[in-house]
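S2.1 Query sequence (DUF3046 domain-containing protein)
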Amino acid sequence: MRYSDFSQLVDEVFGSAYGRVLVREQVLPALGDRTPAEALADGAEPRDVWHALCDALDVPLEQRWGHDRHRQAPPPR
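Output structure tokens follow.
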């Protein structure tokens, strides 16, 4: 998953404004108590950050991929 894919999914799944707040402010234990923005800035894989965010917010698997039902990121390593 590329950074652009991550950003697009955030917008599609959470909405543009709310999604940006989540990325900047939601502290996630799965990311070492960092926000998604901090984790990405520290070099975390966008795919891993996406799964951590969705897991923390209990996003169902069928809703994690936005408008493109054929798009999927492999599960985190």
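The two ends are 13 Å apart (CA to CA). Residues 1 and 47 are 5 Å apart (CA to CA).
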